[in-house]
Amino acid sequence: MNQSLVIKDLHVSIGDKPIVKGLNLEVPKGEVHAIMGLNGSGKSTLAKAIAGHPDYTITSGTVRLDGEDILGLEADARSRAGLFLAFQYPSEIPGVSNANFIRAALQARLGEGEELEAVDYYHRLYEKMDMLEIRRDFTARSVNEGFSGGEKKRNEILQMAMLEPSYAILDETDSGLDIDALKIVAHGVNTLKGPNLGVLLITHYQRLLNYIVPDQVHVMMDGRIVHSGDKSLALELDEKGYDWITPAELAAA
Q1: Cα(207)–Cα(36) distance, rounded to whole angstroms?
Q2: Residues of the chain with pLDDT > 70: what percent?
Q3: DSSP state of 194
Q4: CA distance 47 to 212
């Protein structure tokens, strides 16, 4: 079985407007891949469409997790299949505590009649919170309500740590973070990295890749991957911008 997130010839529209236009990408389990690109290139659309957001229509193409086509699944079923999405702008859920939110997500993955054991659950939760330097009173706070940008992003990495997905898409997880928060979030991601997790980082900035070092970097323009390389590509983009990518590469993508 192919242990990868494999995207082939993916086309995604919002209403009648095509946004992703024949994108191909493979993220093997155990690797970190980064997508970089200008605003409007389709990066966040790609992330949300893969996760099953109802506002994004996949008109053709395939997305497979370890060989399983997930496009026929509802968003919650894609999550149970092993996919995790950290949003650029995490939603607030007033009245639902962080502890209960994560517990409900874990419970949804159990079989009928199975129940989480409370002591074990909180032991794991506090262990992951300590890793991300999150205070204990965080568990009683409503999900993301009144959170700073750094707290929201740490909360998403905490959810990821508890859910243990096979593939994680992190959509601009560095957005709005100061350098200290960025280091903490990066440490959390790096701690979770390993042979059983594939990570797709979506970012504008090379600075995140100083802390989460990618195996591959991909440039996205006009809804397609137009250039790929190793981690040095991010440095080149930071220095030169995107104008140096040749018309021939764009035409061939």
Answers
A1: 12
A2: 96
A3: B
A4: 19
Q: How far apart are the first and last CA of the chain?
A: 27
User: Of 190, 221, 236, which is closest to residue 46 (Cα–Cα)?
Assistant: 221
| Best CA proximity match to 177, nearest among 196, 154, 158 | 154
Phi, psi of 173 (to 5 degrees): -65, -15
For residue 218, count other CB atoms closer than 10 A to its CB. 24
Sign of CA dihedral 39, 156, 12, 247: positive
Say how many CA atoms lie within 13 Å of 222 toward its Cβ.
9
Q: Which domains does the chain have, with CATH numbers?
A: 4-252 (3.40.50.300)
For residue 123 the two structure tokens come to 């032991």
Summarised one tens digit per residue, pLDDT across range 82-139 is 999 998 888 899 999 999 999 999 998 888 888 899 999 999 999 999 988 899 999 9
- The span from the CA of 171 to the CA of 160, in Å, is 13
Burial class from Cβ neighbours inside 10 Å (0-12, 13-18, 19+) for residue 135 reads exposed
Question: Nearest-CA neighbor of 250 among 217, 221, 229, 230?
Answer: 221
* Radius of gyration of the CA atoms of the chain, in A: 18
